[in-house]
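Appendix B. Raw example, untouched.
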Amino acid sequence: GREVLTASRTYYVATTGNNSNSGLAVDTPFLTIQKAFDVIFGTLDLGGFDVTIQLADGTYTSGVAESGSVIGSGNVVVNGNATTPANVIVSTTSASCFVAAAGAKFEIRNLEVRTTTAGEAVVATGNGSNVSIGTGMRFGTSAGRHILADYGGFVDAKANYSIVGGATMHWGVFNSAMLSVTSRTITITGTPAFSVGFLWTEGLGNAQVFLNTFSGSATGTRYFSGYNSYIHTNSG
């Protein structure tokens, strides 16, 4: 019963949209990012093609929580504004911005993530789950962690990115999860504070964070590792 793609596709989302729209054109966008994910993961067979979720400028107050893998090989990418990423903001209250669970995989690019009261900015939880950090990402103030990999999840940075606000942690890696941030430039603005620590690993967490260049500074504990976890910085 799924539509099998025969070419790459783009779905459009805007703060002026409507989830009853098709999402297939700039003038018929969905209202929420979650609606686009529901269509992609729930009704499509990617058939080896990529699907892009294109966000219009604006502030989106609800995020994404996706469970289970997409059908058919192909990539799912959430893209904001490549010229001015700060124009596209996902800002949630008592919820996380992007969650990949139970094998879900996707990439986020060219936007800013923030949380208020509670919630993480980016989460990969469960074996096979993966969130990739693409170009132009900005991590704003978060009530929880900026990046959380948990229970076998995996977060990898495919490009340089910016930190423009504090959090409890920037990187949290727990329970046999893995983080890979290597050979990247991370630009830190405004001396953000990390109340628990910049990088925290526990329960066989594996953090590969080496050959990175940091521009700017932050406050808080730099590293904490416990319960058989591993941090590899290559002396960085």
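End of appendix B.
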